[in-house]
TrEMBL record:
The keyword Hydrolase applies. InterPro entries: Acyl_CoA_acyltransferase, GH, Glyco_hydro_3_C_sf, Glyco_hydro_3_N, Glyco_hydro_3_N_sf, GNAT_dom, NagZ_Beta-hexosaminidase. PANTHER family: BETA-HEXOSAMINIDASE-RELATED, PUTATIVE (AFU_ORTHOLOGUE AFUA_8G04060)-RELATED. This is Glycoside hydrolase family 3 N-terminal domain-containing protein. Residues 637-715 form the N-acetyltransferase domain. Belongs to the glycosyl hydrolase 3 family. Residues 15-340 form the Glycoside hydrolase family 3 N-terminal domain. GO terms for molecular function: acyltransferase activity, transferring groups other than amino-acyl groups; hydrolase activity, hydrolyzing O-glycosyl compounds. Keywords: Glycoprotein, Glycosidase, Hydrolase. One of its GO terms (biological process) is carbohydrate metabolic process.
Amino acid sequence: MAVVDRPSLLRTDFDRQIGQLFMVGFDGTTVNDQIKSLIEDYHVGSVLLTAQNLKSAEQATRLVLDLQNIAYQAGHEIPLSIALDQENGGFNSLYDEVHIRQFPSAMGMAATRSTKLAKEVAKATGQELCAVGVNWILGPVLDVPANVRNQSLGVRTIGDDPQEVSRYGVEFLKGYHEAGLATCGKHLPSYGDLEVLGAQTDVPIIAQSLQKLSQTALNPFRTTISQGLDAVMVCGLATIPTQVDVVNACISEHIVQVLLRTDMHFQGVVLSDWSETDALIHDFGVESSIVMAFRAGYDVVSLCGSFTVQQGAINCLKLGVENDTVNRPRIEQSMQRVLDLKLRCTSWEKALNPGGIDHLMQLQPSHASLSSAAYNSSITVVRDQKTFLPLSTRLDTERELLLLTPLLKPLPSSAAHQKLNAAPDGTAYDQTSVWDSSSSIMSGERIFQELGRAMSRQRNGRVLHTSYTANGLRPIHEDLIDRAGAVVVVTADAGRNRYQNGFAKHVSTICRMSSISNGDGTEKPFIVVSVSSPYDFAFDQSIGTYICTYDFTEIALQALVRILFGELQPIGALPASTKNEQKLQQSTQQHWLVENWNEERDSYPLELLLESVRGQHSSDPESILAGVSSRTFLLRCADVEEAHFIVRNSNTKELYGFCSTYYFISTAVGAIGSIIVDPNKRKLSIGRSLYHRAMRMLAQKNGIKKYQLGTRIPNIFLGIPTVDTAEHRRLRQWFVNMGWKIASSQMRLNMILRNLPTWNPPDGLSHTLSNPDIKFDLVYGMGYAEAVLDHVRTHSTTGVYEIYQLALADKASCGIIRAKRPEDGSILASLVLYKSDSKLAGFVPALGDSKVLAGGISSPVISPSISDPASLMQGLLLLGIRQIKKQGANAIVLDCIESDKAVGNLVALGFSTLHTFEEITCETSTWAMIS
């Protein structure tokens, strides 16, 4: 349709002015006679769409376009405002599994700890709404709960810290604006602190005074107003009579005119909550309610009742103006505010040409990725006291996993729910469903069937699933718990559904008692997952492992499964109240003075500290610290900036803790090489104090690109040691609590070839040296540095360049084996050989005892252009082993193998694993987002 200019009638046509001040809803998924009449005959300027109006993105686009076409043909000067609630999580009006992405709720987004991610999600939500023709989103929610354990909005709120709500509210606002939507903050003054003093049918009151609200709950409104909030929705609550002038806030001149307009300097549109308007009309009648609302200062009144009520309300406002109950300038002022809002978010060109499905398809790939990132970052492990996570390390595939879930109404957005609409009815609640990884037939309780199926696929094992109700623990539950190897209980708003609280605690007790009945002291892993309010067990320490997903959409549960089985590391954090409680607990921990390392003063005390730690592993001559001295930590390399920190007793000079850090200039990587704490001083926050000091220092390095746990030089800790399973789990969780994303970790190994004097190469291996396209040689000294270092700089990772520098500078004790292309001499691969008396050996503790270990091989670097890197690697190693064997060595240490994929070939050569580690890295851009 061609868009043509039309004369302005709004300035002269009173009926058109009145129509702009109403937002109406209607029944049905297509245009009916009632909404058509409201637009054509009553000139209504805004339409509110709800879930009852919308079936899919395609249908929504068609419906909105039909509404705009009616308005255009009816002579509307400016398009309709098409408003929608789209809060994400479980609170969306528009669902479409194919074209509309699912994103976490407001509280779920705050749990990601990333305002950047919050803005991106808001923008993506806005882009999808704009594509179907919506131009006004009724959000963000800015309520601040005063009592998180008992509040009606649940995860629709960002949290209970006014500053946090303000911060995320602004980012949501910016995202919506960038997408092209008008915004509406809600619900002023607040749904955050309600009390019902009389019968349950009474209108609740705001428990706090307006003065108290002004200091807390109103701050997010002030902040977003200053950032360009387009509209504010006033909720209909009775307030304390001494504070305002009328029974209900939604008809209070004090709330709108004094608090909002005068105190907060808000110049945008004030909108009524349609449910409260309908309630007022029921209590006071149409005429009185409409006149009260506009006299209170509303610009737009929402009406989603019957067509008769909507007609009556519009006519009542006309009558109120005509008899001077509502003055005409007041109407014109509100109309201008509405028009200003519309001009910021729509035009006829935009309204009559929505992007529709084609645009949504273009957005889908990036939005799907964003959705996964948001959910992956939001899932929160509140506690894991006994390191039951991940289940993959605590539950053999032969053992059964039990899933216990409450009966809940599925979210409309669930793909599983859509599939189940066509499925036969499920069995009774106490009927057990069993999923094997190969099973395609599902029966029994259906709400969480996709969760059960995903858990079965992820663990490649058997999952039992049954539901529970207010009837409590039944014999079938007890039987299943007894046979299961681990139990997961799901809760949803257990604070209001108290039977869920009691059920979870009962099952927890049974699982704890399993350690007694088993006779082996092992406790059956028990995990509670809250899929709605995170406050079900947030403050209840009796639930030792507690996870929050903030909603139970399909994608949220997919992220949950990945966390349960260790494929994804949780980085979500609970809202402010719980974080504040955790901070309070942490404040009882000691905060130690961390000092810079002083070599002269601290070398001997460090030797004593190392000896104390080694004393725990005196029976293991090959423990990680077996050959470590204070000198091992000191690289003294021009291309590495090192800084080390200590916690000490200044009187006795005793070291309680030591931390080494390195900044590798060549790769711009900052690494924590070690954190060592006196065994008698553990759990006193010494390690935490050292860690935070080290990270603050590394963060100040100009140009730093990445952080890393573990260093290949010095070769002490290549990452988190994995020798002791329980200790590894504890250390992993410690670093997760510090904000590290363990999902990005890589295995690193030190290997050893023993009995070298009697070693012979495997049959047929020598042919790897006879390739005419490759020439091998052994070189020494800085005369070869330029070509070798250029090759290493191009194809290696952090720490390797420095190892080659040390080797080239030590001609007497180190050499470089090169594999070259004969025709041009270009280097295809290389590795370092070194003796136990070399400077390089001083940074590899496993070579510390020359009576046992007298040679080392380090840092193979192979060009990615090589078609068969495994064979070339074997050739390099074969030459290296022969060379070291000639020197009379008893054994060879091969340090820092980067992938366990190479282990098979190395074992074939005679190597065995000496130490294994989990190296963790994190880009600084990612760290800034999650920390």
